[in-house]
Amino acid sequence: MNAKNGGIGMDSTAPVLSVNQLDYKYEQQNVLEGVTFSIQKGSFAGLVGPNGSGKTTLIQLILGLLRLQEGNIELFGTPIQKFKNWNKISFVSQKANTFNRGFPATVYEVVAMGLTGNIGYFRFFNRLHKKQIYQAIENVGMSDYVHRNIGDLSGGQQQRVFIARSLVSQPELLILDEPTVGVDTENVERFYKMLARLNKQEGITLLLVSHDIGTITSYVTDLLCLNKTIHYHGNPSEFYQKSDEEISKFYGHSMHAISHDH
Ligand SMILES: Nc1ncnc2c1ncn2[C@@H]1O[C@H](COP(=O)(O)OP(=O)(O)OP(=O)(O)O)[C@@H](O)[C@H]1O
Question: Superkingdom of this entry's organism (predicted)?
C-alpha cells in the first residue's frame, strides 16, 4: 500500500530508504553498478566497503548532492526527485571533526546551530528550542560539557557534539560518513554504544558508513557490504558464517573480521 500524496504525504509503511538498480559513473569509470537495497524504520544499518568502493558516492546520491544517472532512490516512500522533507534526514560527515579547534563557540552554541535551519539565524530560541538543545546534548552524554568551548574537547567528544547538532532538529534518519576518523579506539566503542542507544531508545534510523567492519558488526542490526555493488545485506552474525575466501572476494583483500558480543 502506498499512500503518496503528490510527494507531500508520506507512506508510513514504506522503507525509510529504498535504492533500486543504481548505476553511477564518473567520466568512464563505473563506480556503482546495480546497487539495490532498502532500510526499514528503526534499523541501525552499517555500510562497509574498502577504499574506493563507492560509499561516499552512494551517500551523496542519497542526500541529493549528486544527480541520479541510472536507477532510483526513494526516501520515506517518495522518489528523491519529489522529496521535500529534508528535515527528516540529518548527515554527519567525516569532516566534522576536522573542525577548527580555535572556533570560539560552546557546546550549547554549536548544538543550537542545528536549529537555525528551522527557525532562521536572527530569531530567538524559545523555551521549547532550549529544551530540545539540552535534550540533544544529554542524548549524546555531553551534559557535563554544555558551557565548555568546543575547541577544548577531545576528537570523540567533539564528534558527539556534532551528532547532537544533527539530532536537535529531530531527524528520523541519521546518516554518518566515517564519523570515527580521528577518534581513539577506546572512544570509538563508546561512540558506537551511544549510537546504538539512540537507535533503540530514541527510535532513530541510522545509516553508518565505515571501513571498520570489525567493530561495527557488534552494534548494527543490518550489515551492507558495498564494493561497486551490494555483495551482502543481512544480519551481521550470518556474515561471519561466510568463508574468508567469500568475504575477501568482495572486500578486495583478505580480512579477518572480529566479532564482539555486547
Ligand atoms: N569527483 C570524482 N571524480 C572522479 N572520480 C571520483 C570522484 N569521486 C570519487 N571518484 C572515484 O570513484 C571511486 C569511488 O569513490 P568513493 O569516494 O565513492 O569511494 P569510498 O568507498 O567512499 O572511498 P573511501 O573509503 O576511500 O572514502 C574511486 O575510485 C574514486 O577515485
Answer: Bacteria
